[in-house]
Specification:
The complex is a heterodimer. Chain A has 13 helices and no strands. In chain A, 76% of the residues lie in helices and 0% in strands. Chain A is mainly alpha-helical. The radius of gyration of chain A is 24 Å and the shape is globular. Chain B is mainly α. Chain B contains 12 helices and 2 strands; from the N terminus they run αββααααααααααα. A two-stranded antiparallel ribbon of chain B has the order 1-2. In chain B, helix 3 runs parallel beside helix 7. Chain B is flat and about 80 Å long. The N and C termini of chain B lie far apart (57 Å). The chains are: A mainly alpha, B mainly alpha. At the A-B interface, helix 1, helix 3, helix 4, helix 5 and helix 6 of A face helix 1, helix 3, helix 4, helix 5 and helix 6 of B.
């Protein structure tokens, strides 16, 4: 190896490590501060030089706020959106990829047009719909709109297109109904993409903020992000230890899901980008 | 073929279709109820005024006012500040996020030891809740926070991150870049890995240096993917909300007030629904315009390669 090569290697690694510090330090900081005994006060260098270990922040947060309830709410919300998405969107995607019927392309484009609508543009009328349905402060109010997801339909349809038609045709000849072609053949074969879409939806809705914020008016119905944001606004600068403890609880599930499905998530996001490009 | 037989065949054929229509109907009902109807209603509501304040809001009787909401919006100096902030923020965010993502994608493409770890480390913030991590950053950016401690250790002065208007908008950019650049880098990396190898072999044979290869082969080939990243970043920048709520609540003063924050504030705190809705329509048209520009840019980019 010549000197130029060694030097360029060194520069590359310096950049890689500096940027990794940028991305990982805030997570490390949050984690360390959450375990600091609040009695010592929070010094500026607390995460660089920890002053001890204590679970007091977690205990206080779980006993003085509705945090246990927020965890349950968020888990119900994110899981049911993920589950609903893979059922509803996969059925729709099956019809749009394997079905033969007039106006198929029209319906596909119509459904995809939902991607063009920013949540901001429909926030007020959507909330009015929820008031009319009496869904404000209910799980339905945040779960059902989350299930209607153009990106889920898109990714699943794209995947199902790669399943050979001959497979379905031979089952058709044997007299299978279209629904059983969906349920017994296409759905099991789409498992990798279904898992990816479910993981993406779970992460997205576990983390969602703006819509749950306007929908959940009762403290017992808050999701973790809404609860922690409200708690932080109320506590001001005095209870950082508890706020960080809540943050750790908020980010760990999505990080675990993300690390488990990382490869698939990367592939599906790259696929989506390639399609925008086209 | 007799008529009755043809009718029967037609009916049979239609019943083959029918099952597919039944399959998409549940989704279409949701689409109409939660996407199509709301966007149509959004256009209608933007032409109405609702009595603001406590007694008004979502139960108030709307009054038709034509385009007055839009007129009020453009005459409201806070809206103009929000618009200006949003534009500055979006430009800054897009430039920083794209630059960092491009550099990191190119470095990761080198396939050095540890690439998998670094890629995961960069992409990880993407999986976290933006409101939550903004609150964590708020803690770090306090006057006596760990960010200033690190600056001091490096011999640099403390910075009033969230209390100085210009710096606060920059702080929001840093947090947003932190959360999203890994995602953009992964998209660019996928683009790089999909590139045809023969170009590079030809360049090597011709004795092209690393920079010439980057300048004349890699970047032109990557251009369509770069456009996609810039487009995604612009859309997300234009709609920024969580980071503002977590870090600054629009402050100090109105220095970090952005369009979505303004919309939330007008609609859900002041209950001026017609006005807030007009802001939503404005955001809709800007997003649509950006998508059209992106389409044109991509077509132009294609002819380049």
């Amino acid at each position: 190896m010549n000197y130029v090569k060694i030097l360029s290697r060194a520069v590359f690694y310096a950049v890689l490590i500096a940027i990794a510090f940028y991305t990982l330090f805030p997570l490390y900081h949050m984690f360390i501060v959450s375990f600091q005994p609040s009695a010592v006060g929070l010094f500026t260098d607390i995460s660089l030089i920890p002053r001890g270990f204590s679970l007091k922040n977690y205990i206080d947060l779980f006993t003085t706020t509705a945090m246990p309830r927020w965890i349950v709410n968020t888990a119900i919300y994110a899981s049911f959106v993920a589950l609903g998405t893979i059922l509803l969107d996969s059925l729709t995607a099956f019809a749009l990829s394997k079905g033969r019927f007039p106006l198929k392309e029209f319906f596909f484009v119509l459904i995809l047009s939902g991607l063009m609508i920013p949540i901001q543009a429909i926030l007020i009328p959507l909330f009015k719909v929820m008031v009319t349905l009496n869904w404000v402060n209910t799980y339905w109010g945040i779960i059902i709109p989350g299930i209607v997801s153009p990106s889920g339909v898109f990714l699943l349809r794209q995947y199902m297109l790669s399943i050979p038609d001959e497979l379905l045709d031979s089952a058709r000849v044997d007299g299978s109904s279209e629904f059983s072609l969906y349920w017994r053949i296409t759905l099991p074969l789409s498992t990798p993409m279904i898992a990816t879409v479910a993981a993406l939806k779970f992460i997205m809705h576990w983390n969602a903020f703006l819509f749950p914020l306007i929908m959940m008016r009762d403290e017992n119905m808050f999701t973790i992000p809404v609860g922690i944001a409200t708690f932080q606004a109320w506590a001001g600068a005095s209870l950082w230890g508890q706020i960080m403890a809540g943050s750790v609880v908020a980010v760990i599930p999505t990080i675990v899901v993300f690390l488990t499905f990382q490869k698939k998530i990367v592939e599906s996001l790259a696929l989506r980008a390639r399609v925008i490009k086209r | 073929m007799s008529l009755s037989r043809r009718l029967r065949e037609g009916w049979k054929k239609a019943s083959r279709y029918r099952v597919y229509y039944f399959m998409i109907i549940p989704y279409l009902i949701g689409f109409v109820a939660f996407q199509l109807y709301p966007i149509v209603e959004a256009f209608r509501l933007s032409l109405y005024s609702f009595a603001g304040g406590r007694g008004g809001g979502f139960f108030a009787q709307p009054v038709y006012v034509g385009l007055r909401n839009f007129e009020r919006m453009f005459n409201d100096s806070i809206f103009i500040i929000s618009l200006r902030n949003t534009v500055i923020y979006t430009i800054g965010f897009v430039c920083m996020a794209t630059a960092v993502a491009l550099i990191m994608a190119l470095v990761l493409w080198e396939n050095l030891k540890g690439t998998t770890f670094f890629r995961t480390a960069y992409f990880l913030p993407f999986a976290t809740s933006s409101i939550i991590v903004s609150i964590v950053w708020k803690n770090m950016l306090q006057p006596m926070g760990v960010a200033n401690f690190i600056l001091n250790q490096l011999g640099l002065p403390s910075l009033p991150w969230l209390t100085n208007g210009d710096l606060a908008l920059f702080a929001v950019m840093i947090v947003s870049v932190w959360q999203t650049f890994g995602y953009y880098a992964v998209i660019l990396l996928a683009g790089l890995q999909a590139m045809p190898k023969d170009f590079y072999e030809a360049a090597k044979v011709d004795g092209a240096g690393a920079f010439a290869t980057l300048r004349y082969i890699t970047l032109p080939l990557l251009k369509p993917m770069l456009f996609v990243v810039i487009f995604l970043a612009t859309i997300s920048g234009f709609q920024v909300y969580d980071q503002i709520y977590g870090l600054t609540r629009g402050g100090p003063g109105y220095a970090t007030m952005t369009l979505t924050y303004y919309l939330y504030w007008k609609g859900f705190e002041n209950f001026e629904l017609g006005l807030a809705d007009a802001v939503g329509i404005f955001v809709f048209f800007v997003s649509l315009g950006l998508a059209l520009i992106q389409r044109k840019a991509l077509e132009a980019g294609k002819s380049y390669v």
